[in-house]
Amino acid sequence: MIAMTHIVRNREDLIARGRTDGERKAREDLLDVVEATIRAVDPYGLVKDAMRLKGDRLSVGGVRIDLARINRIYLAGAGKACFQMARAASEILAGRIERGIFNVPEKPHSDLGEELAFHVAGHPKPDQAGLRGAEEIVAMAKEAGPEDLFIMLLSGGGSALLPYPAGGITLEEKRELTSLLLACGARIDEVNCVRKHVSEIKGGRLAQAASPARVISLIVSDVVGDPVESIASGPTSPDPSTFQDAAAILRKYGIFDRVPPGVRTRIERGVAGKVEETPKPGDCLFGKVANLIIGSNRIALEAAKAAAVKLGYATLIITDRMEGEAREMGILAASVLNSIGFGKLPLPPPCLVMMGGETTVTLVGPGDGGRNQELALTASRKITGPGLLLSLATDGRDGPTDSAGAVVDRETCRLAEQIGLSPEKAIADNAEYELLKKLGCHLFTGHTGTNVCDVVFILVP
């Protein structure tokens, strides 16, 4: 049997940091759970499970289509999971695809056919390649007629990878807006609400462009609660948010007067009713549109639970809707670990308690941030009981760093102080990355090819 390649590249180093055989075994078990979690939301497998073709009968989720009645099939997509989703879809629909255009964050490692074009676009800040791809996707959508099928493949990162600024807004202004939103601590749904109202493709406008074709979107969710209108800013979803909502978000974070002039002017005109709103729920154009969630944080957590049970751990999923400041969630996670170790609540050891969702970081220092690293380091300052805490970005990229997250325990801060490092200063400066790297606490996976928010694992052996 060929050994399965490990996802965590520094797996052996992380295991070796355990001080006893029991600690090393706990670390090995925890990393086994991490890898099972990521494999469960592999986008290639998710599409293969969701899309089935038998003869001319295509089944996508609960939607069934007779391809004998379809004239042309178009594929499009954007996101961190997009390439593997496109690979699966192109295999299923081999020989039937008219054309496909995709915006991805990395150069594809294989050729899927001359009818499929890939644009390597900027993320998290949009760039010209992303703009070209978005323009081509909208133009292709407008080619689709009433007897055509337009399939959209969406995943986390799709919003930044599909930049198509509305008239009067430059790409540079869109980039500046993105930077302001990311730095102020806005939630991803709030970021996407603003993006939708300064875009020609988001907030249902792609579905509008493809109408009257039949549209199906397969979606790997990176937004807490899986609201389809927020994932990748909902290019094929009805948008319940308004220009007033976008303006309120910018004011909430004190950046309304700091956003670029083109953005501010459009939002002010939208609030005044001088710019057409995004298509809303109930619009007849969505009668031929289906948005299907095929991958989510909950699916990842359930896979982690199953893997942990096989390893002999009691398990509990606390939430798949974790939100808030990373450092606050770190304190909460540490309290859970301590409660298990000293009070056997909410479970007696050996156990694995899980939380999923996505926290935020408000950048106030010169560091790069990284919500999972901030959560983990903050937690380590409060951990007094036995056990491990691991916080992971399922896409393999925590903020702007090359780390996927970190694993810590009650010794982490003591070891930092022994070598002259201050966890408190690192947190205050949003500079957790350098400290955790020096301590060997990081997980390195590279791009995992998927993105279903973050997971926090609390393991007490």
Descriptive notes:
This protein is an alpha/beta fold. 38% of the residues lie in helices and 19% in strands. The protein contains 17 helices and 15 strands. The strands form 3 sheets. A 6-stranded parallel beta sheet has the order 6-5-4-7-8-9, sandwiched between helices. A 6-stranded mixed beta sheet has the order 10-11-15-12-13-14, sandwiched between helices. Strands 1-2-3 form a 3-stranded antiparallel beta sheet. The longest helix has 20 residues. The chain starts with 10 loop residues before the first helix and ends with a strand. The model has no long low-confidence stretch (mean pLDDT 95).
What secondary-structure arrangement, pairings included, does this model have?
Layout: H1 11-16, H2 21-40, H3 43-50, E1 51-54, E2 57-60, E3 63-66, E4 73-78, H4 82-92, E5 97-104, E6 116-120, H5 128-143, E7 149-154, H6 158-161, H7 171-183, H8 188-196, H9 205-210, E8 214-220, H10 243-252, H11 261-271, E9 289-295, H12 297-310, E10 314-322, H13 326-343, E11 351-357, H14 371-380, E12 388-393, E13 405-408, H15 412-418, H16 423-428, H17 432-439, E14 442-443, E15 454-460
Parallel strand pairs: 4-5, 4-7, 5-6, 7-8, 8-9, 10-11
Antiparallel strand pairs: 1-2, 2-3, 11-15, 12-13, 12-15, 13-14
